[in-house]
Amino acid sequence: MAGQQLVNVGFGNYVLASRVVAIVNPLSSPMRRLRDDAKAEGRLVDVSQGRKTRAILVTDSNHVILSAISADTLGQRFAQTGPSDTSNDYEDEDDI
Fold it and tell me: Model-level pTM greater than 0.85?
């Protein structure tokens, strides 16, 4: 796994940045259906630790990951994994 970036999606859980296709807000009806369909098909991974789901991540393998970290915060974390980024300040999980 050398050279691949891991991104913290909350509570010590990490995903490979290169595998994530989308980070979306879970409040819309289509996203609720996406979550329900993934659960029925065994493709749902819940890393929210029982807290309110604030973001849904969709992977290239069609898995759906529920996170208690907001979509905006996750977007910033994924942006920091880009090759042009040189900063080392990482946001904590204070917004949970």
Answer: no
